[in-house]
Amino acid sequence: MGSQGQKKRRKVSSGRRSPGEQVYRMSDRTIRKGTIILGVSMVALFVTGLVMTIVGYNIAMDTPGAHFEESPIFIAGIVVMIGAFVVPILTAAVLGAESLHRGGWPVGVVLTAGGAAVVYGRVNESGVIEFWGWVATVVAGVGFFVLGFIRRVPMGIGAPGDNNVSDGRLPGESRPGKLK
Known about the structure:
By secondary structure, this protein is mainly alpha-helical. It has four helices and two strands; from the N terminus they run H-H-H-H-E-E. The chain has helices at residues 28-62, 72-100, 105-123, 127-151, and strands spanning 173-175, 178-179. Strands 1-2 form a two-stranded antiparallel ribbon. The longest helix has 35 residues, at 28-62. It is elongated.
């Protein structure tokens, strides 16, 4: 098939952009659809896990001498409920980093692993794991800022006076800081 059947793709720069170039490597439509899919999957997985834990608990309570903590259905439900948050957050972090820079996925993985380590360390009272989780989270946060700076994504940290107004060269802006 020749070039006639192919869609014309907008140029995406690897660094500094010129007017009219996309901010992210993925289109706004793809990012919107991905956000909806991740949100729906979180709710669906959590509800599924909750139903599994309730069923596992009820089966174990109806069985003489059984403990619900040992019920495979109950345990699987807990795993699914945890996965309802970890998997979509990991996916969003990885895709977010990839939308900023090709090969940026390790930043998303480190961010998610750091957050999980903080939670795990807190729950199991392991200060060392929690500390390294915080370190990983901060390093990944800085990594996202670096990737965003390279792509010239308007960003801030919410400090006073941080009005986050862009330079007017983003696609869709009619004047600096004002999206159409």
